[in-house]
Amino acid sequence: MPTVEATVREPKGLLAEHTGLGASQRSAPSLDIAVPVYNEEEDLVPNIRRLRDYLDSRFPFRAVITVVDNGSTDTTWDVAKRLSDEVPGVRALHLDAKGRGRALKVAWLASEADVVAYMDVDLSTDLDALLPLVAPLTSGHSDLAIGSRLAQGARVLRGPRREVISRGYNLLLRVFLGAHFTDAQCGFKALRARDARLLLPRVADDEWFFDTELLVLAERGGLRIHEVPVDWADDPDSRVKVAKTAMADLKGMWRLLRDRPMMPRAAKQPARQGRPLALSDPEGTRFARVGIASTIAYLVLFVALRGTLGAYLANITSLVALALLNTMAQLRYAFAWRPLRPRSVALVASATLATSLAVTTASLVVSNEVAPRSLVGQLVALLAGNALAAFARFLTMQALVFRTYLRH
After folding, report:
1. Catalytic annotation, residues
2. Which of 129, 204, 213, 301 is the most exposed place for a label (fewest CB within 10 A)?
């Protein structure tokens, strides 16, 4: 169980100073901003004080800050307790276990505010975006608001590797899970507390996939999501382990794709008079779209894993991670999930995985002979290999799956 330090001195928010709120009304803030931290003993004090100063001087709603320590091994918890004692409008919570999702669940469910939010302790997002984030929730215009580094109007400073990974991941969400938001993982979100109490018990992930799962469940539940383009600067000291996080995200996506209620069976297609399925047919066109998204996701994951695992093992890991996800997306998106036996799904996934492994491994061998250890050369070779594997996958799925559908 988390240890709770609830020392909260009265904040100096503008709304509390300039409206005639009674004592009972002033006891409950309009906004509660959770800041999850792990081993942040050096940056915690200056950044929390900076955030508190901004809220006191420029933010028009009464707000508190909740620092949530995720089992830090340094003096972060002692620093957080000292901040809660010394700075008005700051409280501290302690959890023994790590996990951003776990921290936000505890903080938000314990809050008495009308709106709950969170931001990263490095304050990568420009604080001037806080009011545009919260205002649509207090006005009733939206139910959940997110900062987006990929929406039109956003200004972002970060390296090309993270930019490619971020765009590839969000493209994957749109194709495989039907997401309509542009940026799932930006550490800048807010939602109405009453909606949080309904959503949070349904979110299974307690770590980095928490954000994505929260947004996907919100969309499936019909909640209105508002996006705010943000100015964002990458933290060079970020502790996010890209490879580990990418694998966990793919696992979470597979779970959400698998658990989604089955769609109604599509209307019976007109007979094709024995004609083989072509890419120009609607099913073939959708197959191509999923294939393109899968290839982008594969290349993003390969780049993320290559530095840690090496090219060959990164290739194998990326293909294995995406095999079932790709097959399920093809069945759901291209064919509206017409019933197939699990054995057929496993057969398709295994056959396509074996083909892709053989072709891409051969491509890497050729690439390393021509330009040893060249990332650009490896990506070009893998792209060509994936194109060939995609053609083989199309023929395999046509033989093992498409004919099954055409008989309906």
Report:
1. 211
2. 204
